[in-house]
Specification:
By secondary structure, the chain is an alpha+beta fold. The chain has two domains: 215 residues, no CATH class; 388 residues, Phosphoglycerate mutase-like (Rossmann fold), CATH 3.40.50.1240. Helix content is 36%, strand content 14%. The strands form six sheets. Strands 11, 12, 13, 18, 19, 20, 21 and 22 form an eight-stranded mixed sheet that branches. Strands 4-3-6-9 form a four-stranded antiparallel sheet. Strands 5-1-10 form a three-stranded mixed sheet. A hairpin with a 2-residue loop joins strand 20 and strand 21. Helix 16 packs across helix 18 and helix 18 packs across helix 19. The longest helix has 24 residues. The N terminus is likely disordered.
Length: 733
């Protein structure tokens, strides 16, 4: 691992009908039409201007109409961007938005630019109150959907121009990043009927608008506004394994099962939801560096803001989970509200995906109940994720409540006798196999079914802590000239060059030393922690990697800390340090060096076996289990994905070569974002023949390439279970 990268790696929404992309597209058909959206009713005194014409009564074909949305931006300058330069130039048709944020422009066939200056106001649709705009904004919308100009439309334009992709593909990409179906992305989210979708759209809008404000404020007068907006609005933020979870496919696009097949079982393995920092490490080391720069008088205007933001992150982690139902021990490592929402919504979508199946399961409670088996690693954040997930199942479909079961921990532990000390629903061998320890997990009898997992865990831990090749790969990541250059770019935006030079030449170094204390606002909870001094800044690359760790954790802590570190981490540097972060994981949790064989993934075989064993029971006619739900960690998801041979995940590199984004498809944001999950839906026909479909982060995903021949003829994602089982080398019964 990187010297200063955590070992513990560790919003989606429900689709619902509402005005959406169709209405927006109607607004631009022929270049005319209204905004294609309804408006919240406002008091008469607040609405002297007539409402925009509804989508069913479009304006003349020679006009383009719409609205500018955050709240509603009033007196914003709006124009047809006929030269596509992101500005409202002289000679381009322009107007001002009315008292409800609506506009109508003469002309069609071009994208829209909205320049929102300090002469504009924001109308809050919830309260019908206005406030002045204090920071300049610029927003864009594509010509294909000019009806609503907001952050989301700006992001679609950025994706189209930066990636060279079409409107439909850009809309789908941005929708996934927000966590809504594409049909909801470009409507007026203030009128969105689905509360979960509305919350996701508004949260992403608020965050994105602030990024744009900050980017514009930091830009020079001659800077290309298109480049400024693109950098702020692109969906690729390079959060990697700390990326808040987003379902990767619109449920409405899932392939239907073949005729005659219906769902009979489902199972899942999921990472815990978004969390805070795992311990007092990166935040304290960076703050100590900042304090020294402050004392030296070496802070830039941007650097002056950093200290307060680091303290906000630190305090939020000290108090994380305090007062939150379901969190028993506040502090570092707990799930954030984002993480709680991730599993709450993941459960709701699971019910929504298979409605008839779950109704049938609920109906079984009174006669032949089918169990919903739930197991976790036993670590707090995984236990909490399982709890929030199950709570959501019960709240959404109460008939399932009596069917949830927590099996006893594996027994016996022949050498330690510790099975009784493990709570029901805990299975460390299945879901914490990377850290099995002699004191609690020792299995010495070779004929014990758990022995291979214990043996492989010990071999992995020896590799991780003592393999010279691994240590060289990981320790070298931050000491390259490229890492120093990327770190210098970040630091010289925060500190005087003379200060940065002292880090570069070794005169200054920093660590997570010292004690910090924080109390809750109500004074009822107090926490004091000492840094252990093991997280160090000894190079420019180290400093950059630790700033990156704060950048990637901030989105998960939106509710608790309320800070955005994007201002401190330009996109190019975020991508660079993301690649280092992914490289570290690739070597010790991914496929790694080809010469090392399957040392990083062999211990996950127990989980592969468990997934197949569950389906084997269904094949035998044993329907006692309706579902099995497992909650674990990134250290489980990553080697498991490698062991399963997922395409693009299992490609190792020779020791003589090096992992890079240019030569290897491994990406932490794909393999194991927060709440990453693999789900298998099992279908049966009248004869008992089984088909299996896999979802990876809720996207229909292929099993390993060698199993393509197991797909049922005429389908893209359904595998004949007997053929799939044989492909994975399991005995077909």
């Amino acid at each position: 691992m990187l010297p200063n990268l955590s070992r513990n790696r560790a919003l989606a929404c429900l689709p619902a009908s509402s005005l959406g992309l169709l209405a927006v597209l109607l607004a631009s058909c022929g270049g005319g039409g209204g905004s294609g959206n309804s408006f919240l009713p406002l008091p008469a005194a607040a609405t002297p201007a007539p409402a925009p014409a509804p989508a069913t009564a479009p304006a003349a074909a020679s006009t383009t109409s719409g609205m500018v949305v955050g709240s509603y931006f009033v007196n914003a300058k709006v124009c047809l961007d006929t030269n596509a330069n992101g500005r409202c130039d002289d000679g381009e048709p322009s107007t001002r938005t009315d008292k409800r944020g609506a506009y109508t422009l003469a002309g069609t066939g071009a994208g829209i630019v909205a320049e929102i200056g300090t002469d504009a106001t924001e109308l809050d649709p919830a309260t019908s109150t206005s406030k002045p705009v204090t920071s300049r904004l610029v927003l864009r919308a594509p010509k294909e959907a000019p009806g609503v100009v907001d952050f989301h439309s700006t992001a679609v334009v950025a994706e189209m121009e930066a990636g060279g992709i079409d409107f439909k593909a850009a809309t789908a990409k941005v929708a996934i990043s927000v966590g809504v179906i594409a049909a909801k992305l470009l409507g007026d989210f203030n009128t969105e009927a689905d509360p979960v979708a509305k919350a996701a759209l508004k949260a992403a809008s608020d965050e994105g608008l602030q990024r744009i404000r900050d980017a514009i404020a930091a830009s020079a007068s001659g800077d290309d506004i298109k480049a400024v907006l693109t950098a702020a609005a692109l969906t690729d933020r390079y959060y990697q394994t700390k990326a808040p979870y987003r379902p990767q496919q619109d449920v409405s696009t899932y392939e239907a099962p073949p005729a005659g097949f219906s769902p009979v079982y489902t199972q899942m393995i999921a990472r815990h939801g978004s969390r805070g920092l795992s311990s007092l490490k990166y935040d304290l080391a960076v703050y100590n560096m900042w304090e020294k720069a402050r004392d030296d008088g070496a802070l830039t205007p941007l650097g002056q803001k950093l200290g307060a933001d680091v303290l906000k992150i630190m305090k939020a982690n000290f108090l994380l989970g305090y007062g939150v139902a379901g969190i028993t021990k506040p502090g570092y490592g707990n799930e954030t509200q984002v993480g709680i929402n991730e599993h709450t919504q993941l459960a709701a979508r699971l019910l929504q995906r298979l409605p008839a199946f779950w109704k049938q399961v609920g109906d079984s409670a009174g006669s032949a109940p089918r169990q919903i088996v739930t197991v976790t690693s036993g670590v707090d954040r995984a236990v909490d994720s399982g709890s929030f997930f199950v709570q959501s199942l019960k709240a959404t479909q109460p008939a399932l409540a009596p069917l949830v079961t927590y099996p006893p921990a594996p027994a016996p532990y022949p050498d330690t006798g510790t099975a009784a000390s493990q709570p029901a629903g805990t299975n460390r061998f299945l879901l914490y196999f990377h850290k099995l320890v002699k004191a609690t997990d020792l299995v010495s009898k070779t004929d014990d079914p758990l022995y291979p997992t214990y043996r492989d865990s010990q071999a992995y831990q020896a590799y991780k802590s003592g393999d010279a090749d691994l240590a060289a790969k990981q320790s070298g990541l931050t000491v390259t000239p490229e890492a120093a250059a990327a770190g210098r770019v970040l630091l010289e935006r925060l500190f005087a060059k003379s200060f940065v030079d002292k880090i570069a030449d070794g005169s200054y170094s920093f660590a997570n030393t010292g004690s910090r204390s924080f109390a809750s606002d109500d004074g009822k909870f107090f926490s004091s922690i000492d840094g252990d001094g093991k997280t160090t800044i000894k190079s420019l690359g180290d400093a950059g990697s630790l700033l990156y760790e704060l950048y990637v954790i901030a989105p998960a802590m939106r509710s608790e800390a309320g800070v955005d570190f994007a201002a401190y981490m330009p996109s190019a540097q975020a991508k660079f340090f993301a690649a280092l972060n992914d490289g570290s994981d690739f070597y010790d949790k991914g496929p790694g060096m080809t010469e090392k064989g399957d040392i990083t993934s062999r211990m996950s075989q127990i989980l592969v076996d468990d997934m197949f064993n569950e389906v084997d029971a269904i094949a035998r006619g044993d329907r006692s289990h309706a579902a099995k739900l497992r909650f674990a960690h990134a250290e489980i998801i990553m080697p498991f994905a490698v062991r399963m041979g997922l395409k693009g995940v299992d490609q190792g590199v020779p020791a003589a070569a090096s992992f890079s984004y240019g030569s290897n498809p491994w990406r932490g944001e794909y393999v194991s974002p927060m709440a990453a999950n693999m789900q298998w839906d099992v279908y049966a026909d009248g004869s008992g023949k089984l088909l299996v479909k896999m979802l990876y982060n809720e996207k229909e995903t292929d099993f390993k390439a060698a199993c393509d021949g197991a797909k049922k003829a005429g389908t893209a994602h359904y595998y004949d279970y007997a053929a799939l089982k044989s492909c994975y080398g399991r005995v077909v019964q």
